[in-house]
Task: inverse folding
């Protein structure tokens, strides 16, 4: 839904995307002299590019004794500005990069020092803009860099820049969000920070292939939200939609990207050509968006091999130049003209080559020190190689293959196109045409440009397939087509588009595919159909695979897999048996020469045995498959162990992924069979083989829970013998076993955290409690801090975090002896929950400590912060009401209350001896009421232990 349209004022239109609008003064008026100096410094850097001179003058000012503390803050900000603004004018690219990196560091230093002060929001915005510019700069360098080590270093630096820029954008947005309604200027600053976040995300996606899909999606969502919030017809909304188109193209959705750019161009033309056009400054900004859209659109057309569309788009742009008579932006205009030159080169012919050369030379002259100029000069070199050169097709083929083998995919595509343009005779077209298109398709596919690969391969087959007798190239073309189509399906979400394209691919492929290729395609299609739940259709595809093909046996086990996934285990088992009987039949023995078939047989046998074990596991654990519902059948756990005990050893090299799943099922079965030791041995092996596999986290949880059950049983043993002097050896043995079990459980919890980005809330709490059991307070804090980090802002957990986790952290801090920090946390929590008796008791502990037995039976007296009177008053006057209301007169908790009061009075007597009598009174009440501690001793081990504490602490 579109938001109501409104126009931004001229101030925004004239420079909304320039650095100057984002960097407001630091608020209060400064001394006139320093303001003049700041103006001079900015002019030296921005207008003249004298960065070093400005830096020298700045250093002198900062060292001057006349410079006040407020001036120093202003100059610290200007220092970053000077470097950034001046760097943009430096011609030497290496030096520019060095200065830009220094500028970003200066911005960071400023925010580290003054980040919470007035005016810091403007610096955050400036920092984000500098990161945006530097990120684009690094992205261009990465694209042109040939050295892989340098490219990797640039990518790592770019990643840091993107992360810093997005954080700065988020910080600026957060700072401005509550003030958006105050003025239009603040609203603009807020939207600009939002926009920079989106552009940084899409540049991140463009620059780092491994993050492409995730970051492109984030960019698309961010920019779409901005467009809807700001209004899709406002300048900022149009810019957001434009950048969204770039993100779509980066993701690989080039068709959607082109649609977005075309829509942006139409919207700009509509506004510029309306009867009530926007102010002149806004017109210039809108025309810049038209230029950017045309640039991005022609980029896509070039990559898709559509030179005629490029030339049409450039002609339309030239028409807009004439019609609207607005000054162009040289960096966008010349990028468009370079794309025109490239399109003319791709079309071929002497006239086009000559025109392309003229364009490239003009652009190079206008851009002596930037990446547009570099690209123009590379194009000139390429054009100069064409005229008058008479090179045979074999030499051109070999040269193109060299580019492909060197992974210079763009150069390879151009080289193959040059080869294709050179083909004249029917013989040459038959010999080289299809081979060239196969390698063009391969070049695109290796860049994950699957749509371009598909079009190239279909063009090659339809154009040169009828002319060629090269069956090997035809089969390769069809195989690459199938692979590219699968890659495209993984890459985009538009299944209707891919299915339509598949129909075209099938039509061409059927004419040129051999039995092997048809079998490959059937298996690929069957996999997809199984993923989509179309099991019967998948089985039809697989049944059609010829027995003579290499893939026949794999197709048979895939039929079993399809039946298994549908839930029909009976059919699946029957098919597996039929296949295994087939392989065991001497008549079906494979000769040593049939190496490919033997390899497929290894795969198929490994698969068949995995499916048998997996069905047993699903039945044992009660997993639903297809539409079949199952209840757990523990009687089959042993069968699961038997099926998967040696699977990794026998088939791990053939099917490593199945081996991993088999081991996971094996461990789960062993745990349920209470063979925890064997399960842990298997776990240690799988963790070594697959350290980053997230499924291991689930196993770690299972093993953690198994150990936790053992710990609970041992705790009961300890409770039974604790306090009995005749059971000392039993107590020591049980305590040692408990500590060992706790250590194992905690190791599994730690393993779980290593692979699980959002670990289970309760497991973290449980792990912390176990760590406290063995007095490993650092680890206990680690688990609880993870809870706060992950769930502290989750509305479903904030109450639990505040009520339980933060108090637990305070309790552990006290265990570590950090009573002061614990007290501060408890006091903060009491502001939120002032009536919480749990927190009040914790405050008593922080103020006055507590008393308990240690593991060796000795008395451990903790002091808290030493404010014993205050602790006693809180305990006796406030916490007593809670005890009286909740427990009976002589419950264990009531005795504990009296002991705690007695302990605090004994401690307070160090300052006021009157408290010793009060302590004695609490002891006498506990002893005499009603029967000389007999009621307390009968409560059980805990009561007996508390009785012994009374005796040891008797005043």
Result:
């Amino acid at each position: 839904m579109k938001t109501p349209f409104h126009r931004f004022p001229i101030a925004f239109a004239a420079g909304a995307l320039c650095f100057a609008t984002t960097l407001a003064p630091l608020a209060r008026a400064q001394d006139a002299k320093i303001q003049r100096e700041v103006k001079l410094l900015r002019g030296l850097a921005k207008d003249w590019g004298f960065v070093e001179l400005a830096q020298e003058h700045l250093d002198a000012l900062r060292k001057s004794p006349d410079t006040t503390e407020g001036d120093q803050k202003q100059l610290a900000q200007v220092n970053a500005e000077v470097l950034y603004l001046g760097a943009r004018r430096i011609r030497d690219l290496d030096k520019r990069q060095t200065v830009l990196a220094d500028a970003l560091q200066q911005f960071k230093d400023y925010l580290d020092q003054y980040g919470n002060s007035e005016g810091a929001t403007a610096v955050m915005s400036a920092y984000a803009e500098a990161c945006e510019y530097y990120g684009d700069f690094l992205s261009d360098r990465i694209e042109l860099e040939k050295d892989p080590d340098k490219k990797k270093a640039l990518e790592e630096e770019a990643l840091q820049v993107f992360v810093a820029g997005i954080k700065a954008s988020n910080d600026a947005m957060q700072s401005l969000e509550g003030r958006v309604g105050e003025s239009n200027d603040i609203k603009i600053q807020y939207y600009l920070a939002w926009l920079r976040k989106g552009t940084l995300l899409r540049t991140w996606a463009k620059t780092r292939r491994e993050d492409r899909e995730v970051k492109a999606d984030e960019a698309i969502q961010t920019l779409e939200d901005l467009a809807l919030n700001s209004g899709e017809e406002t300048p900022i909304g149009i810019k957001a939609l434009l950048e969204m188109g770039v993100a779509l193209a980066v993701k690989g959705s080039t068709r959607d990207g082109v649609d977005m750019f075309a829509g942006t161009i139409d919207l700009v033309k509509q506004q510029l050509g309306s009867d009530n056009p926007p102010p002149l400054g806004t017109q210039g900004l809108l025309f810049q968006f038209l230029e950017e859209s045309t640039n991005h659109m022609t980029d896509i057309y070039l990559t898709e091999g559509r030179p005629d569309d490029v030339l049409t788009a450039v002609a339309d742009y030239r028409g807009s130049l004439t019609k609207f008579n607005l000054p162009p932006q040289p960096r966008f205009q010349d990028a468009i003209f370079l794309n025109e030159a490239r399109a003319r080169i791709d079309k071929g012919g002497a006239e086009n080559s000559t025109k392309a050369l003229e364009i490239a030379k003009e652009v190079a002259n206008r851009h002596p020190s930037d990446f547009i100029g570099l690209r123009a000069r590379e194009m000139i070199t390429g054009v100069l190689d064409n005229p008058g050169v008479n090179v045979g097709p074999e030499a051109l083929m070999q040269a193109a293959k060299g580019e492909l083998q060197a992974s210079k995919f763009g150069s390879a595509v151009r080289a193959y196109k040059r080869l294709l343009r050179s083909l004249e005779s029917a013989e040459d077209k038959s010999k080289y045409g299809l081979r060239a298109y196969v390698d063009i398709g391969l070049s695109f596919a290796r860049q994950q440009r699957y749509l371009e690969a598909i079009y190239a391969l279909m063009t090659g087959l339809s154009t040169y397939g009828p002319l060629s007798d090269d069956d090997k190239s035809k089969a390769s073309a069809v195989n690459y087509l199938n692979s590219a189509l699968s890659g495209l399906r993984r890459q985009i979400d538009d299944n209707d588009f891919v299915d339509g394209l598949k129909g075209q691919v099938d039509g061409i492929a059927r004419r040129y595919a051999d039995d092997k290729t048809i079998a490959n395609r059937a298996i690929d299609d069957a996999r997809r159909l199984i993923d989509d739940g179309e099991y019967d259709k998948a089985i039809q595809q697989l049944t059609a695979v010829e027995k003579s093909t290499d893939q026949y046996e794999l197709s048979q086990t895939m039929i079993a897999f399809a039946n298994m996934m549908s839930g029909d285990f009976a059919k699946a088992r029957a098919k597996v048996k039929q296949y295994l009987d087939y392989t065991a039949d001497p008549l079906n023995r494979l000769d040593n020469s049939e190496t490919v078939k033997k390899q497929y047989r290894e795969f198929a046998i490994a698969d068949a045995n995995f499916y048998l074990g997996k069905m047993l596991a699903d039945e044992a654990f009660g997993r639903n498959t297809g539409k079949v519902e199952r209840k757990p059948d523990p009687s089959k756990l042993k069968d699961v162990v038997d099926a998967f005990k040696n699977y990794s050893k026998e088939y791990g090299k053939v099917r490593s992924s199945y081996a991993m799943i088999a081991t996971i099922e094996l461990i789960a079965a062993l745990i349920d069979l209470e063979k925890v030791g064997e399960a842990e041995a298997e776990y240690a092996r799988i963790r070594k083989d697959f350290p980053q596999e997230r499924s291991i986290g689930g196993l770690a949880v299972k093993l953690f829970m198994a150990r936790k059950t053992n710990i609970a049983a041992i705790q009961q043993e300890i409770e039974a013998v604790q306090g009995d002097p005749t059971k000392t050896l039993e107590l020591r043995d049980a305590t040692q076993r408990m500590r060992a079990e706790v250590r194992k459980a905690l190791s599994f919890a730690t393993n779980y955290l290593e692979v699980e980005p959002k670990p289970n809330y309760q497991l973290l709490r449980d792990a912390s409690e176990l760590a406290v059991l063995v007095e490993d307070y650092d680890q206990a804090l680690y688990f609880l801090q993870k809870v706060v980090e992950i769930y502290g802002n989750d509305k479903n957990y904030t109450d639990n975090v505040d009520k339980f986790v933060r108090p637990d952290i305070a309790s552990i801090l006290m265990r570590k002896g950090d009573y002061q920090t614990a007290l501060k946390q408890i006091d903060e929590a009491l502001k939120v929950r002032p009536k919480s008796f749990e927190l009040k008791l914790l405050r008593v502990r922080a103020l006055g400590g507590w008393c308990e037995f240690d593991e060796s039976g000795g008395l451990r007296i903790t002091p808290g912060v030493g404010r014993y009177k205050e602790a006693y008053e809180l305990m006796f006057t406030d916490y007593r009401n809670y005890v009286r209301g909740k427990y009976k007169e002589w419950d264990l908790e009531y005795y504990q209350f009296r002991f705690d009061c007695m302990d605090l009075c004994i401690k307070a007597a160090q300052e006021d001896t009157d408290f010793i009598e009060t302590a004695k009174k609490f002891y006498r009440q506990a002893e005499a009421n009603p029967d000389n501690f007999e009621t307390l001793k009968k409560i059980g081990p805990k009561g007996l232990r508390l009785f012994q504490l009374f005796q040891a602490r008797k005043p």
